[in-house]
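Summary for the steering committee. One of the milestones for this cycle was to obtain a three-dimensional model of the protein with glutamine bound, which we needed before selecting residues for the alanine scan. The sequence and ligand used are listed below.
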Amino acid sequence: MSDTAVERVSRLLEHIAKSGLNAYVTPGGEAALSQAREADRGKRPGPLSGVPVAVKDNISTRGMATTCGSRILEGYIPPYDAHVVQELHRAGAVILGKTNMDEFAMGSSTESSAWGPTRNPWDHNRVPGGSSGGSGAAVAAGEAPLALGSDTGGSVRCPASFCGISGLKPTYGLVSRYGLIAYANSLEQIGPMGRSVGDVARLLDVIATLDPRDSTQVRDTPRGGYLASLDGTDLRGLRIGLPREFLEGADPDVVRATHDSLDTLQQMGATWEEVTVAHAQYALPAYYVIAMSEASSNLSRFDGLRYGLHLPPGAKDWSTHFSDVRGQGFGPEVKRRILLGTYALSAGYYGKYYLKALQVRHLIQMEFTRLLRDHDLLITPTMPFPAFKLGERIQDPLSLYLADVDTVAVNLAGVPALSIPCGFSRGLPLGLQLIGRPFDERRLLQVGHAYQQATKHHLARPPGSAEAGGFST
Ligand code: GLN
């Protein structure tokens, strides 16, 4: 790139202001420009020096509003940076802005944001996926070369699939969650998003560092070297499993694109066979019980006293006051989940729902362990269909939950998964999901990169894209 960081950041901020995608809740403005100026003066050295990175709005940024797409956090400005944001600064990156998301990351369409939906750059009448839909749309439309999302049950992979970009849900315990505002702690990870697998690897190298502040991080595993692992296109000896349950009920174009991708990988030397995940049908209900239970506990900290939305307490008792704040501050989907989660954890129902879900989770973990012993990776569609229309599912929560059928088992098992573009259906991108062994991100990225050397799906750009610059290997 011949332009300066300041030129690039100003150009992107201008584009963001007028594109109409609503990918950003808070564009970086003067703070981003001043980081870019520092980079141009050589004062922000590092592997991402001067590179703009978009950050999902549930990742804390010091001095920059962080709302989780919710009114209850309106006006909240964190006094500290998340670990991953500290690492971005240390790598010389420019924080380009905070991206739109489903409220508290609960959703698969970015329609539950209090700040209005984000549009899919490929078709403005369609959703970008969710919950990291702002990050997905921004990268696809060239409004940022790189972005961070978070993935509790698919929230990095779903928007990657719907927007035609690459995105990784790292192994549970690889990336620090310090400063990520929790939705369901036992499931989520922060994940890198970019146009190519090379960009995803580059960003993972920066964020997957050790952090004593997250006690759930796994310490004794090798970290880093992700970009360096992208060598060659020879896949001889690679054994792939195709879980047949994940193709049942998928759109015929999705099934076709998955098989075409397997053909491509086979031509590069890999072998594949169909496998069975016997408990696959229980993943979705188990996921939603666990995610909602954890959410009901996590979201109790939002009481209108400590952060964000404040209401005058008046003469009411405190419990009425808290109900008023929460009644006004939370949107309908968040309320639904707090209620359902509280119910699943309540005396008499705990064993029937929460404990049962944990048992199913254990069975699914064991099945993935077994399948990933005999296979180097599993391949499935990321989503069962391409991006749907805005408004099509939002009134029917169950139909939205069902969209996550191919992504949630990965979070229950804690294993890593990469989504990469693998074709189009009626002009809309489709995603392929590569599921790997715990902490085997290098292999997922290597195979994804090899696939992108042999195909062109990831190079397609939606109409009206900006030129984000950056890498795109
Ligand atoms: N759609 C899923 C849910 O609503 C996943 C969201 C996520 O990964 N944050 O829970």
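Key point for the committee: The chain has one domain: 5-278+365-459.
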